[in-house]
Design brief:
- The structure is a homodimer of 196-residue chains.
- With 196 residues, chain A is an all-alpha fold.
- In chain A, helix 4 packs across helix 8.
- The longest helix of chain A has 22 residues.
- Chain A binds a DNA duplex (18 and 18 nucleotides) through loops.
Chain lengths: 196, 196
Amino acid sequence: MAAAWEEAREHGLATLTLRQLAARIGMSAPSLYTHFAAKHAIYDAMFADAWREVERLQVAMVLPAEPRAALRTVARTFFDFSTADLPRHQLMDSRIIPDFTPTPEAYAPAVRVMTNLHKLFATIFGTARNEDVDLFSALVGGLIDAQWANDPGGQRYGRLLDRAIDMFADDMGLPPAPASGPAPQPDEPTPGSDQE
Amino acid sequence: MAAAWEEAREHGLATLTLRQLAARIGMSAPSLYTHFAAKHAIYDAMFADAWREVERLQVAMVLPAEPRAALRTVARTFFDFSTADLPRHQLMDSRIIPDFTPTPEAYAPAVRVMTNLHKLFATIFGTARNEDVDLFSALVGGLIDAQWANDPGGQRYGRLLDRAIDMFADDMGLPPAPASGPAPQPDEPTPGSDQE
DNA sequence: GTCTATAGTTTGATAGAC
DNA sequence: GTCTATCAAACTATAGAC
């Protein structure tokens, strides 16, 4: 599996060949069929691998109590993960491999990640409407894709992530972020917290 | 060219073959080389075609005077165009064809479209900062990609477009949309316009 | 489990007649 | 400009020996 990811990063995901993959681990191409029924089974395992890693990150995430900060943490976690590895992002979030559809078993971790995202929303907002989660996902996904398309490896869109999330938080009716320092009492207006 | 688009819509963009394309127009595959130097030259012509069509749409766009409505029109125009044709969207906005990079001539219309978008921003906002245009593009692009990925042919993300644009307009400091009917005087607060 | 050998298919592209 | 014939290369996958 590690060799498959390396191969994809070097030569592209769609152009990954069994010969090159086998050569990388000192095997012959036909020997791969002992471990995978077909080439698509390799993509399938990679797909599941990637989403399980997101799931692990998601579970390990420590969310700040302040709602906006929590939302920023969620968004940044996904953004950083998805902009770190192009073939992984392509396999998880696009249809770059013709005729490849993940099996239900491989798809299961992806479903769990989305379920967990709904739970995170319920924690942060007290409710988790589908359309809110959809908008949030599309927002973060749009920045990820733009980053890969127009400035791979750079910061051009990553810099806009917090602003985008704040925009969304405003739309969701979250209270403005408290000034730095200990969180103020909700009933007590923070001195000097007028808009900058 | 029309046959190439049809072929891409039916069998996929990346799996388009010269034989099938030629068969569609009653030609032999080698005869295509009279008109295109290589397969990539066909993709190149398609790429230019698609962006020229966006440019035409963009130039023909009639923008409402009210800034939020204008922004919504711009966004909706791009969204509808990009969700209408999958291979066209893939060719324009992703890197689905390995080793294909548009030639500078084919890329020129895309550059003009982005230049025009900056001008539109200048018209609507009085200014056109790169980061604002970037955020707007990523926002619309994110909804387009989510629409294709999770609900092709549906309305799930298209329904969220106006909300997303309003979110962005708020962030940009545009005044709230006037109630239906004639636009109110800027100095006169609209009755009943407190937050909902 | 791993190998060599190879089947079987598809592809982009070229040669050369007409 | 268009055709037929074909090249040269690549690929996934299978057969069968060890």
